[in-house]
């Protein structure tokens, strides 16, 4: 899965960052670090509407075990503590407080999701606990002036949205655009980026904007509104569950718009297969890492190491 491979890269970056910190450390450490251990905390949506992302946390836990089997970081073993937050911000707050105040982790690593990260950003910065590689591309996580203890990881959602806008102007200059977006910083950043890419043509080209809440069981009504507005191109700024629902509903309607999908929801395993591979044909998205499921990657050394790791 593309997202899993991406987050293994983040785990490798964590190992490098901790290695530098450990090398310079003295005998007195912050909570969560000793001569033998580095305690790291993470929340993962093991359940709930974004549970497709659970595979990221599982792969990262396996990667940490591999690092420990190889001797850890300068002799220190990584103790990764994971809690399920169901992609629910109030639950994220509860679990992160537990990680900081009870488990006394040195840092949080790759908390998954825009809304969950937003819910704990201020708290972690007040506590001066690193919010390392927050798994989101929302703009608010690259604000070192106000949140110096936060470091984002994903490429900018705004920039990605702008790329789609520029693509539409070039390839579909007469398109009537409908936008489906998640009603949080993820969806809003994508929407604003798309409008920036379309420039002064945005107001004329976008014929429908409709949002959804993560708690909604389906987004069928939103898809119908976009279709009924006369859109012939749809941009889904969504997470896996709703993206799969959108693909499936569009196919059921016999509607054939150009469909652009954000990278968070472009997984074959988590989105395309549940929606139906036939229905998913023609969906357009972007990528910025190697896809280990791509047959052209079968002889790539990095992909081969990935497959060996996953097999173990």
Automatic annotation (TrEMBL):
Pfam families: Peripla_BP_6 (PF13458). The keyword Zinc does not apply. InterPro entries: Leu-bd, Peripla_BP_I. Residues 1-24 form the signal peptide. Residues 37-298 form the Leucine-binding protein domain. Keywords: Signal. It comes from the Bacteria. Belongs to the leucine-binding protein family. This is Branched-chain amino acid ABC transporter substrate-binding protein. It comes from Rhodopseudomonas palustris.
């Amino acid at each position: 899965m593309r997202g899993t491979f991406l987050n293994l890269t983040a785990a490798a970056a964590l190992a490098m960052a901790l290695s530098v910190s450990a090398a310079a450390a003295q005998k007195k450490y912050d909570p969560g670090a000793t001569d033998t251990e580095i305690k790291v905390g993470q929340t993962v949506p093991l359940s709930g509407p974004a549970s497709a992302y659970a595979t990221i946390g599982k792969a990262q836990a396996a990667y940490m075990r591999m690092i420990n089997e190889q001797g850890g970081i300068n002799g220190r073993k990584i103790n990764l503590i994971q809690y399920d937050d169901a992609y629910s911000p109030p639950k994220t707050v509860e679990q992160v407080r537990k990680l900081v105040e009870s488990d006394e982790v040195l840092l949080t690593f790759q908390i998954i999701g825009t809304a969950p990260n937003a819910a704990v950003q201020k708290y972690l910065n007040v506590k001066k606990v690193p919010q390392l590689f927050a798994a989101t591309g929302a703009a608010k996580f690259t604000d070192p002036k106000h949140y110096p203890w936060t470091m984002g990881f994903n490429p900018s959602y705004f920039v990605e949205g702008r790329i789609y806008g520029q693509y539409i102007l070039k390839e579909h200059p007469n398109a009537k655009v409908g936008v489906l977006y998640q009603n949080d910083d993820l969806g809003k950043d994508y929407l604003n980026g798309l409008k920036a890419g379309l420039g002064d043509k945005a107001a004329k080209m976008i014929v429908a904007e409709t949002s959804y809440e993560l708690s909604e069981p389906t987004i069928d009504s939103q898809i119908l509104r976009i279709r009924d507005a006369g859109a012939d191109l749809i941009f889904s700024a969504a997470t896996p569950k709703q993206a799969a629902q959108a693909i499936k509903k569009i196919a059921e309607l016999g509607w054939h718009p150009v469909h652009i999908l954000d990278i968070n929801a472009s997984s074959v395993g988590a989105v395309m297969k549940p929606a139906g591979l036939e229905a998913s044909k023609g969906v357009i998205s972007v990528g910025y890492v190697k896809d280990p499921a791509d047959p052209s990657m079968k002889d790539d050394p990095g992909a081969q190491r990935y497959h060996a790791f996953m097999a173990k």
